[in-house]
Amino acid sequence: MPQITLRFHLLAIILIACSAVAAPKNVLLICVDDLRPELKSFGADYIHSPNIDKLAATGRAFTRHYVNAPSCGPSRYTLLTGQYGPPHNGALFVRAERLEKDETSVPPSMPEWFRKHGYTTVSVGKISHHPGGRGGRNWDDGSKLEMPNAWDRHLMPSGEWQHPRGAMHGLAHGSIRKRAGEHPVFEAKEGPNEIYPDGLIANEGMRQIEDLAKSDEPFFLAVGLIRPHLPFGAPKRFLDLYEGVDLPPIPHPDKPGSPSTWHRSGEFMKYQRWGKNPNNDPQFADAVRRHYAACVSYVDDHVGMLIEKLEASGAADDTVIVLWGDHGFHLGEHTIWGKHALFEESLHSPLIIISPEVEKPGTAANGVVETLDIFPTLCDLTGVETPDFATGKSLLPMLHDPATPGHSAIAYIGSAKTVRTDRYRYIAHKNGEQELYDHASPEKETRNIAGQNPKVVQLLQKILEEELAK
């Protein structure tokens, strides 16, 4: 009998050890709005971004990550569903309407998929298009969800800004955008992080980390920071970081010829600009760029707080961390101030993944990848089954070996679609016009060579059509 009891004890110990080894990893997904790769770890030496740079040094930075749409709503649709989707900001609400009519006709979203596999799923801040993930006049109507079935909790602390819509474009001390022409395009007030909305989002994110880390269930926590989305507002101490700093000149600052997806920067120009236009006022352009940089450093501060809280909770070693920018942002390139175009600046954003699977941490991967790839990658990293509807390519090989080649990246707006390869960007307009740019040339995206390269155009057309057919 004692020998049998001993065997049972040994068997129990082995089972417990195996269960500990097989325990699924948590996910911390940090989404940052309008964040171009304007980070020191991505080559912008004048930017103060020590916390994000530390992530890049301990994980894998993907230096050529491209989003699938240059706007918040459709880009987040792809992140959260693992599929290409409609090109407009209401994409997830359209999906929700389809779900309501026939739940079986729509595959689960990424958070819903993890929820079905035993995860507690929580979102804080701006993860889908509306911060908090709800519709209605003030984006707080609980009967109108952007992502039904996705979250156990979806939270948006609004504080002085009264509601998520107020916080989205809020400036210091509860200032809500009522008429954009009276709302400053940038400001920097003295005070702690909480005088702007992201301070509240980061604080709630830290509370959720602390709470979720105590549970026996794995968690999928998504924290969405609003800055550096317009208007550019951050505590003054972050703007002070750029006092006396020389900014590099704006590359290719001239308006492109036709055809192109150039636009008049309507989102930027509608704000209070005190009669100034950055395209013909270098001092104002400089001020805009410094306030954008201040917002990046403000966000970086919050990223540091979230990671510090994760480490203090004891859950860091069991958590996959992803930092993702939802699209790029023009700061004067092609005379555009904003996103919504199919140029490199609108589509290029940072992606960093931290996981035990990362070999040679701190070495960047320079192959082309796209947001569509994040869903299957997270499945591979957590041991969750990869669904067949998540059509991206897992980045696990690039986490093992940063020299692994990438693949083409697709993006679209309502009037055009594009494919980015290692060398070229090809843009096909609905009206039949075409653009082709060679990134191996000094001119890059300032000289359209489509007319001189019909064979390259034909090849890229085929890639674009085959990928979108998925």
Write up this protein.
The chain is an alpha/beta fold and 470 residues long. The protein folds into two domains: 25-407, 3-Layer(aba) Sandwich (Alkaline Phosphatase, subunit A); 415-470, no CATH class. It is built from 14 helices and 19 strands. Helix 7 (197-212) runs parallel beside helix 10 (282-313). The longest helix has 32 residues, at 282-313. It is globular and about 60 Å long. The chain starts with a helix and ends with a helix. Mean pLDDT is 95; it is low at 10-21.
What gyration radius follows from the Cα positions, in whole Å?
23 Å
Q: What percentage of the residues does DSSP assign to strands (E)?
A: 15-25%
What is the number of E strands?
Answer: 19
Instruction: Kindly report the spatial arrangement of strands forming the biggest sheet.
Output: 2-14-11-1-9-4-7
| Rounded average pLDDT | 95
Count the DSSP helices: 14
How many domains, in number, for the residues?
Answer: 2
Any guess at the CATH architecture of the largest domain? 3-Layer(aba) Sandwich
State the helicity in percent bands. Answer: 25-40%
- What class would the helix/strand composition place it in? alpha/beta
**Biggest pleated-sheet summary:** 7 strands, mixed
Terminal CA distance: 62 Å
According to CATH, the homologous superfamily of the largest domain is Alkaline Phosphatase, subunit A
Label the overall shape.
globular
- Give the C-level CATH assignment of the largest domain: Alpha Beta
- Unreliable stretches: 10-21
Instruction: From the 3D structure, determine the CATH topology of the largest domain.
Output: Alkaline Phosphatase, subunit A
